[in-house]
Design brief:
heterotrimer, A mainly alpha, B alpha/beta, C mainly alpha, B: 10 helices, 12 strands, C: mainly alpha, MetI-like fold, about 55% helix
Chain lengths: ~325, ~325, ~425
């Protein structure tokens, strides 16, 4: 259906591969650019700490092998590429012998859940609000009220999160200030747990939704205004179609297309922002895991998480790209 | 100079059906600007009879499109109808609003837009766009009947049935234009306004579209107003010609007589400027300046460019008078 | 034409003088308001040091935990005591660690951290031993590397810890300070968080490290602005160069540039910046800006490329080509002036993004440790559980000034959008 030609799919897949490869390469290069021998620094740090003696030797060995003091840089590079492709992300330095991929798998669902829900809600709501702001038939009271929803657009996610914690968790005590769930409730797909998760997840999700809503709203408003002058809109009105049909099938339907492109382009930024949100809320997703990695200078963990983040974002963009021709019949070749 | 007038289908020479479909009386459409109202249409009156094609011609900016848009109630702010009546089938289009207006739209009056390139919703298939119009006014239809009806419409304008499920970008310019014609006649309106239907097309396709329009008129008895500035095309298409200059009507006449004997100086200039394929003649330039549409000079609207201007022209605005049978002119020359 | 006709022309063809310079599109109210806000912050850095002692932004230069004097509800705190008294009442400690269980995401990390309430609202007063080691990273691993302490600046995070101030280096920083009145925080029932008495000597209050907030603002805010401006500036320059190249030259050049910029946009920049910062601590404005510029160039590149492609087919460009203008001529004389509003809007957007990235990195603790930047201030505040201790001025004032910066830039961007696209201006008329 639509323009999902093999050429298009191939090109999109190519971009996906390129993005992941680029990210992985950057992660590979950076430690080697840092001054000093990271392994030696690591070892000395290990020796300074009590209580990490057991397993340290094996870990250092694994680390050396990973960093590969053996072999020229290209060999190291290919070994590295192979390992990330098989998701062999190594061992965490600070919580050895835990493996990075295990820790990531534990944290991943929280991030995916929070991110996708928050992004979806903010995208849908934001575009609706923007469309209504531009539509000439919106009643005036609504038109004056709507810009209020945009007041928080220029506040970064995490700062708004701090404000939310202060007012709603510390002040009103309506929501918990951190975490994803109460440990006293048994985990599982039962109602109390799900409600509890929603309760804990409200503030983090709100920080993302309220602040990014405005971005979509403004974009949509601009698109609707631009499209309003288009000939097909005039003809739609001339046909005497009911206003709601013109709004949805002629207005929104066309204006949403560039917004989806914008969504694909902003996923990277949203992923970054939600990392900070998780940090603020100690929400046990990948963002918080990343912070702990920073705190403990757990380089393998940091690199592993960042790689997964890059891969996740690239995959999300790929999915969007593949879905796009299904809604825009004009696309036969990628942008 | 002579222009041979040919009609491919029988005309209504001399005889006219006494039924008046459209009666425009003293129409005024002004555009508000910070420095005064621009008088796009200034006291225009004319009639369209049953089953005839009226051509509305004039140079760019003379107000012909605005007149058509006013009839269709598609004038956008800052323009507005400031006076006059537009009587179509008993309804005064100048004053009707809301649901009553939507009712009239497409049912009684339809538009074939200029440049169908942009007038079709790019993300909707052709049949949906036609079905839209039908269902908006006649309620939901049975699928099979609707499909048959639409395919019939398409064949009326000479389009194959595969166009039914195609997207606009898959059609050529001429096909798109004809699809718009099909859409316009879907509800059998009393009046169809075609805004420069062939301007964006090449000559060969122009002929096809022109013939389609004539065909539609003959078969369905639809009255049409065709707007354009290609005098040669007008000659072959219309029954009567209405000439506008700077927002006012200067001449209305059956097409044969106006080409044989144009009475108004402006019409004479228009016809003289048609290049001839048979003889070689120099390009005739009209001298004089156009005036500021916010501040028309008192008296005849054409005084600044008229080669026969006299004193009375600068003081008194000549009314449209019937100088020959069914031939109206607004000029002091013939007093 | 006769003279009478000329007169008629004069009369009817009235000269349009309705538009004067006050209608210039650049005088867009949103744009100007935004610019005003940004300029205010910039000027703060210039004028501020003239009126206020910027040295008060250094650690332990001021009394700790003073609320702003204009904040209601703190007047009753009048107890002042000379330093040295240790605090051991733990009536209040329970309120500062509400979420100790929150990090049980099945996270095998640092088991010892659990007891300390490992949520990063950390700074848990129940982990006093960590403090004495001078280890500043209380947010998880109390056995965190000593390298942190050697940087020396992040001591004294927890005022409720045994105030064994002689053990801390900071006391020696301001040698005179120990003898001057340093009203120590004394936690009592009516003053559970141990705030000192507010005074107008510190109009915006102070925080737990003994920094005066106004001084922090004066030093930190303009610095944030500078980082953003430089990073965005570099990004714009690269973007202009690449965008024009891609738009003009087309072909494989265009393909390569477009592909790479698309890939870089997709990569979450913050994540990669974190990786880089973890290894390479960037402390200077220029270094930070360079780092951010690495991810700031794709946006302008895309924008300019798109505009160039559109404008290339426009009439005036074709005309210029026909009259033999060189590529540079076309670029700078024909295209640039029309690109200006778009470029400006892109620039302000990029500045905003760069400041956001810089602040985000700092809030995670990856910024310079000796200079009081806004992001690092927020970081210290979070680490000291300032949110839950009610010390809203510690994090609130940096956030407020950052909001001013972001809102100002945002307004400028919208204003510039309206200048570039006149249709958006008139939307309100409907």
């Amino acid at each position: 259906m639509g323009g999902l030609t093999p050429k298009y799919v191939l090109r999109r897949l190519g971009m996906w591969v390129l993005t992941i490869w680029l990210g992985a390469t950057i992660i590979f290069i950076v430690p080697r650019l840092a001054p000093g021998d990271p392994v030696a620094a690591m070892v000395s740090r290990m020796l300074n700490q009590a209580g990490y003696v057991e397993g340290a030797a094996e870990m250092i060995e694994a680390w050396r092998a990973r960093f590969g003091l053996d072999g020229p840089i290209l060999v190291q590079y290919f070994k590295y590429l192979r390992s990330v492709l098989t998701f062999d992300l190594g061992y965490s330095l600070s919580s050895f012998p835990s493996r990075v991929d295990e820790m990531v798998i534990d944290a991943l669902p929280w991030t995916v859940g929070l991110l996708s829900l928050a992004t979806l809600i903010s995208f849908v709501l934001g575009n609706l609000i923007g469309a209504m702001m531009a539509w000439r038939r919106t009643p005036n009271w609504a038109r004056n009220l709507l810009p209020v929803t945009l007041t928080f657009t220029s506040i970064p996610f995490f700062m708004f999160g701090i404000l939310l914690i202060y007012f709603f968790a510390f002040g009103l005590r309506w929501f918990p200030p951190s975490g994803a769930y109460k440990s006293s409730i048994p985990m599982g797909w039962n109602l109390p747990f799900i409600l509890n998760v929603i309760h804990y997840g409200t503030l983090p999700a709100l920080s993302i939704v309220v602040t990014s809503m405005g971005f979509w709203a403004l974009g949509m408003r601009g698109m609707m205004i631009t499209n309003d002058g288009e000939d097909y809109m005039i003809l739609a009105e001339a046909k005497g179609l009911p206003p709601h049909r013109v709004f949805w099938s002629y207005g929104m339907r066309n204006s949403i297309l560039p917004q989806i492109t914008a969504l694909a382009l902003s996923l990277g930024a949203i992923a970054g922002g939600s990392t900070l949100v998780e940090y603020i809320f100690a929400y046990p997703g990948m963002g918080y895991l990343l912070y702990l990695g920073i705190v403990n200078t757990d380089y393998t963990l940091i690199q592993g998480i960042v790689f997964i983040l890059i891969m996740g974002t690239a995959t999300a963009v790929l999915i969007l790209d593949l879905l796009y021709p299904l809604i825009d019949p004009r696309i036969t070749y990628g942008k | 100079m002579t222009v041979t007038v040919t009609h491919t289908v029988g005309s209504q020479n001399g005889k006219h059906n006494a039924d008046v479909i459209l009666d425009v009386k003293n129409l005024k459409v002004y555009y508000a600007t910070p420095t005064g109202d621009v008088r796009a249409v200034d006291d225009v009156s004319f009639q369209v009879f049953n089953s005839e094609i009226v051509g509305l011609v004039g140079e760019s900016g003379c107000g012909k499109t605005t007149t058509a848009m006013a009839i269709l109630r598609l004038v956008q702010p800052p323009g507005r109808i400031t006076g006059g009546q537009i009587l179509l089938d008993g309804v005064d289009l100048a004053t009707v609003e809301g649901a009553a207006l939507r009712d009239v739209r497409w049912n009684k009056m339809a538009l074939i837009p200029q440049g169908a390139m942009n007038s079709l919703n790019p993300v909707m298939r052709i049949h949906w766009q036609i079905a839209d119009a039908i269902q908006a006014h006649e309620g939901r239809q049975s699928g099979k009947e609707l499909k048959e009806r639409i395919i019939n419409l398409l064949s009326t304008v000479g389009l194959p049935s595969r166009v039914y499920g195609m997207y606009p970008h898959e059609l050529s310019g001429g096909m798109k234009q004809r699809a718009c014609i099909a859409m316009a006649i879907a509800l059998n309106p009393a009046l169809v306004i075609a805004d420069e239907p062939t301007s964006a097309l090449d000559v060969v396709v122009q002929r096809v579209v022109g013939e389609t329009l004539l065909d539609v008129k003959e078969r369905l008895g639809v009255s049409m107003i065709v707007i354009g500035h290609d005098m040669g095309l007008m000659a072959q298409l219309v029954d009567r010609l209405a000439v506008m200059y700077a927002g006012r009507m200067v001449e209305i006449s059956p097409v044969e007589t106006v080409f044989a004997e144009p009475l108004h100086p402006y019409t004479q200039l228009l016809i003289e400027s048609i290049p001839s394929i048979k003889e070689r003649k120099p390009l005739k330039l009209t001298e004089g300046l156009t005036h500021d549409l916010r501040n028309p000079p008192p008296g005849c609207i054409f005084q600044l460019r008229c080669p026969h201007v006299t004193d009375i022209c600068r003081e008194v605005n000549p009314p449209l008078r019937e100088l020959r049978p069914r031939h109206y002119v607004a000029c002091h020359l013939y007093e | 034409m006769t003279t009478t006709t000329v007169d008629a022309v004069e009369k009817s063809a009235t000269r349009v003088s309705g538009l004067n310079r006050w209608d210039s599109p650049w005088l867009n109210p949103k744009f100007l308001t935004g610019m005003g806000m940004v300029l205010f912050v910039a000027l703060m850095g210039v004028i501020g040091p003239l009126f206020w002692d910027a040295d008060l932004a250094r650690v332990a230069s001021s009394p700790q935990n003073l609320p702003p004097p204009w904040a209601p509800g703190y007047e009753q705190i009048v107890e002042k005591e000379i330093s040295g008294v240790s605090i051991s009442d733990s009536a209040e400690t329970s309120t500062t660690s509400p979420s100790s269980g929150s990090m049980t995401g099945g996270n095998p990390l640092a088991p010892k951290a659990e007891s300390g309430g490992s949520s990063m609202t950390g700074g848990n007063p129940l982990a006093p031993k960590a403090e004495s080691g001078g280890s500043s990273m209380t947010g998880g691993n109390p056995l965190a590397p000593k390298t942190e302490s050697s940087s020396g600046s992040m001591t004294g995070g927890n005022p409720l810890a045994p105030a064994n101030t002689p053990a801390k280096d900071t006391a020696s920083d301001t040698t005179a300070a120990t003898s001057t009145v340093r009203p120590n925080v004394r936690a009592t029932a009516s003053n559970p968080y141990g705030f000192g008495a507010p005074s107008w000597e510190h109009p915006l209050g102070t925080e737990s490290n003994g920094r005066d907030m106004l001084a922090v603002l004066i030093v930190g805010a303009p610095r944030s602005l500078r980082v953003g401006l430089i990073a965005a500036g570099i990004g714009m320059l690269v973007g202009i160069f690449l965008g024009f190249s891609a738009g003009f030259m087309g072909g494989w050049v265009d393909n390569v540039i477009r592909t790479i910029s698309d890939a870089v946009i997709t990569i979450p920049s913050l994540a990669v910046l974190i990786v880089i910062s973890a290894y390479v601590r960037s402390v200077s404005v220029e270094n930070m800006a360079l780092l951010l510029a690495l991810f700031a160039w794709p946006g302008p590149t895309r924008l300019i490329r798109a505009q160039v492609l559109t404008m290339r087919e426009r009439g005036y460009v074709q005309m210029a080509r026909l009259s033999g203008a060189s590529r540079f001529d076309i670029m700078f004389r024909e295209m640039m002036p029309n690109l200006m509003p778009y470029l400006a809007a892109s620039f302000t957007g990029n500045v905003s993004g760069a400041i956001l990235a810089a602040t985000g990195l700092e809030a995670l603790g990856l910024g310079p440790t000796r200079i009081p930047t806004l992001g690092m201030t927020i970081f210290y505040a979070i680490r000291a559980a300032a949110i839950l201790r009610g010390m809203w001025w510690w994090w609130g004032i940096p956030i407020a000034i950052l909001v001013v910066i972001f809102s100002g830039l945002f307004l400028m961007t919208i204003g510039l959008d309206e200048i570039a696209n006149p249709r958006l201006r008139g939307a309100q008329q409907k």
